[in-house]
Amino acid sequence: MESKDVFTLGLGLSEPWKLAGQRLDIEKRPNELHLEVVAERGALFACPECKRACKAHDFESFTWQHLNFFQHHCFITARVPRVECPEHGVKRTPVPWARPGSRFTLLFEQAAMVLVREMPVLAAARFIGITDKRLWRIVDHYVRRAVAALYLGSVRAVGLDETASKRGHNYVTVFIDMDRRDKPVIFVTPGKGKACVAEFRAFMLSHGGEPTIVAEVVCDMSPAFLAAVAENFPNAAITVDWFHVVQLFTTAVDQVRKAEARSRELPKAIRWAVLKAGDRNLTDHQRIALAELETGGFATAAAYRAKEMLRWIRQADSPQAARWRITRFINHIGLGLDPGPLLDPVRRALNTFASHVERIVQRWTSSHSNARLEGLNGIFQAARARARGYRNTATFVTIIYLLAAPLPDILKST
Questions:
Q1: pLDDT value at 65 more than 70
Q2: CA 258 to CA 276: how far, in whole Å?
Q3: 212 CB burial (10 A radius; 0-12, 13-18, 19+)
Q4: Across the strands, what pairs with 91?
Q5: pTM passes above 0.85
Q6: When comparing pLDDT for 372 and 273, which is higher?
Q7: Phi, psi torsion values for 392, nearest 5 degrees
Q8: pLDDT digits (tens, 9 = 90+) for 297-337
Q9: 369: pLDDT confidence band, cut at 50, 70 and 90?
Q10: How would you write the chain as a 3-class SS string?
Q11: What are the residues whose beta carbons fall under 8 Å from the beta carbon of 106, sequence distance 6 or more?
């Protein structure tokens, strides 16, 4: 088999395209292998609109980067015709080795997408020898196409949460199918609040879904989210997930700790000790710090005890038992707090908690695990790591879809 036949097979060329020549440029570092592809003289080409066989109108030369040939960078150059279609006029005909508008071959792009799923985009771009901006354009194309093909007709329970794409106030809101065990993300949109829920409803309708048959929506205690869910999913029960209940009181504990630290010295190692769940994964220093906190008359200790008492509520085995424990919790914590301003964050958390009791109790009748929304934090962290070095809201959305949405056909070449 001659070298020309090897390259022809490797490129997957078929009539009317054939390999006309190859040239290795050893003056470049790394070396570059240039392959020239031509069309047979007098060949007919398909109109991109109607697929009718048409004569060539004129030709223009284009170059595409291909997969490396051993250690050499490889490029394909071809004169691509425009056809003159009687119905659609003059149109550029597509080539079988690349998608329209791209300057990379399909095989190159598929290899790039495999790498992006396994490593940060910036690292993948350096590995394959292109800029991260060019790689982001490849990723965005395939993710957009796959998202456009999502079918949401089977969605019956939805969870939603928001996160910052980076430090500051650039938020995205993520929606998941609560019944999916793997790749649960079905919609991601920049921003937060009521408008995001309306956008998801419109997206759902355009992808075969029906908002009126959604039976449950799981979210946090944001008034904007709660109002929007009631408006856009009128038949859905609203469940406030336990993860956000714990997060509410954890935030209050941290606020009390920061305020108290400005007026008196706290035990060393207490910062992370009070944020952990119970006594799990505590270091010896953190255990000592907690013991000092409990015996030292600190306001942070009262906030910490309120957070830890939530574990007692969660162990309730029925909605009735949960409601009783919640009532006891509200009364016990509310009456036990010192009247000073240091514990105001706990009082605010307690008031918020009390105003959503029925939606919180809904958790005990829901068949959906709280772990679904807790798992979103892992998705967010992975997305931030993959987008490292070139992270804005648009790329953050793209990476979340790539990592956590059900996009099985993302690497299809056609």
A1: yes
A2: 16
A3: exposed
A4: 83
A5: no
A6: 273
A7: -125, 180
A8: 899 999 999 999 999 999 999 999 999 999 999 999 999 89
A9: low
A10: CCHHHHHHHHHCCCCCEEEEEEEEECCCCCCEEEEEEEECCCCCEECCCCCCEECEEEEEEEEEEEEEECCEEEEEEEEEEEEEECCCEEEECCCCCCCCCCCECHHHHHHHHHHHCCCCHHHHHHHHCCCHHHHHHHHHHHHHHHHHCCCCCCCCEEEEEEEECCCCCCEEEEEEECCCCCCCEEEEEECCCHHHHHHHHHHHHHCCCCHHHCCEEEECCCHHHHHHHHHHCCCCEEEECHHHHHHHHHHHHHHHHHHHHCCCCCCCCHHHHCCCCCCCCCCHHHHHHHHHHHHCCCHHHHHHHHHHHHHHHHCCCCHHHHHHHHHHHHHHHHHHCCCCHHHHHHHHHHHHHHCCHHHHHHHHCCCCCCHHHHHHHHHHHHHHHHCCCCCCHHHHHHHHHHHHCCCCCCCCCC
A11: 97, 98, 99, 413
Token digits of residue 136: 């982001």
Amino acid at site 291? A
Amino acid at 94: P
